[in-house]
């Protein structure tokens, strides 16, 4: 079954009342309600300024914490010097030897320290912690502490690095080399993408409060309370009860608050335990940009074999990701990137190799899409270039290639249900009038090129070129491979003795709508008004571990658990009372002293993935997306204006269209930023544009008009048929924008972002800027520590792990994002 | 010296250094934490307030500059416990997601509507161009401001 939801554009039609901006009359503003949906649960608090984000919370007597960071990419730490003229008795200074438990921050590999003990592996790495009772004293202390270091050779290029975090291999069908040799045409391409910052508008923030039991309570901005809980237990040597983690209102995450908050919480916790008072660790924007995780840079090379009639015969794909200095979640990011690297296309012969390498740059981590936006950008670039080479419409080529029911993926997963690749393709192409506008812009380009030969370009219309581009994507729903089975999440539903119903999960609200859809799902199953269902706070001492809020899994996986719990609760109450739940649950609660249902995840039926062979059902289901972007390119300046984007997304059952569209629109704009303006530049391993004045994201004036089309092709394994929406929209627009730039100008831009510099270089045949994601090396730095390549011994850590290339490599944990 | 100004209609006198940021005075001295800090250098607009009716980044305004001025923050938009038309429009269109840019967006929207702005998409984009949002793609924020602007007569 495929159902399409396409809401009309909002057309304001309200009669003007007399006074300026009074409270609305009842029923006056009806847009949200008109779609029959509950309003955002915590919306009124956010709209009146009463929602408490971490930095809004007041703890009397709290001290202020600070992280002393490295200012070199790779060095031996010789000492931490405290200037004698400062009175150090006024503050607390902590170093690696003060870590109460193990000096380890780990999700997959135990390679990252809480604080550096002897070897600095990246710029802005935490080396020491300071806390002071007031900001002025803290500032003074910071001025008087310095690090003594001895520079070591640094590696910035993942292609040079010898230290591997992970590798994966996918082989499908027969001999890829033979198939390529037999193809009419082999198209090759290398595509590079750099770092991208999540740029949640609320910076990372944690407050640690000492507990009477010797432990610590953390209040903070986060996606995954139980990740922090685990990190605290290990690094601070606490029991599960001594470590309590409570999510404050969280101002955006996008993956950036998946794993890094564990570092900040551990730092704040160490200081709080030592000071004996609450300690605030509130990053400012500069620190947040300089020190926290980014999207992994990647270098993706394709060789694709096709026949003249457009038949796809072979894909040979090589993916290299830059993990930065420590492992973090890199193996899982690489895994998702590798599994998605072929794009949503059926190909008989496939070889995909993925590896993630270490460099002396700050660790990269989770960011919406989690490896897929990188590899799918490359896949879609390749499809659009092949369409050009074959002189076939990119729409027509995708109609030939896109997955259908029954097709087999590179991991040899048979797509048995919920395949809406063609549906989203047709919806997006139709809504955007892709073929009509494409023929129009092609004609304009021909005329312009003809005109350029005969006359000097003068009119503004001749200086601006319009183009339209198309791309597709797929996104595996939920955790990769066996992740969900390992994780065994629990969600609970509670009916108190006094008749209050509440949902208990660790799933966080960071703007995407968890706190609205969980009560909505439970209320629908119980047959009660949504107002009757509350949400327990995301507090590890109260809620069960329903897993991290990542991987677009909240609506699909945890939402599914909430529904199952509600069904069980309803059945139990109705069986006992013989009356409908809504009429009888208050009586039942009183007579039975309440009821609690704990619902644990059970493997989806007929979904099997073998971690050892890296084969099988990599995901229980996939979301499908197609995107059409229209751009204007200023031919004098190379500046790109993305005018319109149509994004069609099959996300399975749509729980709440307003919230789901919000995900599509926000993800689309993040991808437009990725495609056009967002780039971290590095020198000597340091992020150069580590301020909001220099790391630019799209404003309302840069943002295109975004038309979101929701397609519903439900997944039978989830009780409500949802497949998740958070990440899919991020996967698809970048290649559509670059294809549109090509349509406008005739130039292919292979590296992101397609900045004015890269576009002008391509148009005028001049040297393009250096590839994204790679640090330059200054003369001073090269002199201080000869580069690794010069020294002939590329290294990241002093003691790189042996290259254990046991092929294939099993997945090591349930982590995903 | 003591600086006197009004915040949301209430007289305030603060005996703090004149170069103290208005943002800090609001959040820490007056306990009005609805105004947020996103970058501290005037790029993101999360700290937007109205000073004598004009939209300003409170992280860039020293307290000495608001002597005698009327400051309005998100806490001053609606009467206690309620939502004004603009806030209600944000709630109903889905204009607030994570909510951290929302107070600043509301102030930008309020300034736009108070200046007679109507439900015109391009004009609204211009009016909120100094306020960054990473969640919404701006679509539903523009819808919300247009909705409230359409319901408000020009002055």
TL;DR?
The complex is a heterodimer of chains A (817) and B (155). Chain A is α+β, with helices and mostly antiparallel strands and 817 residues long.
Topology:
The complex is a heterodimer of chains A (817) and B (155).
Chain A: E1 3-5, H1 31-34, H2 43-48, E2 63-69, E3 75-82, E4 92-94, E5 119-120, E6 126-132, H3 135-143, E7 145-151, E8 164-172, H4 176-182, E9 185-193, E10 205-210, E11 216-220, H5 225-236, E12 243-247, H6 260-275, E13 279-282, H7 285-291, E14 298-306, E15 312-324, H8 330-339, E16 349-358, H9 372-390, H10 394-401, H11 421-431, H12 434-454, H13 460-463, E17 464-476, H14 483-487, E18 490-495, E19 501-504, H15 514-526, E20 533-535, H16 554-577, H17 581-592, E21 595-600, E22 609-610, E23 615-616, E24 622-634, E25 640-650, H18 657-676, E26 682-683, E27 686-687, E28 705-712, H19 728-731, H20 733-745, H21 756-764, H22 779-784, H23 788-791
Helix pairs in contact in A: 5-6, 8-9, 9-20, 15-16, 16-17, 18-20
Chain B: E1 3-7, E2 10-14, H1 22-29, E3 48-51, E4 54-57, E5 70-72, H2 85-93, H3 102-114, H4 121-127, H5 139-150
Parallel strand pairs in B: 1-5
Antiparallel strand pairs in B: 1-2, 3-4, 3-5
Helix pairs in contact in B: 2-5, 3-5
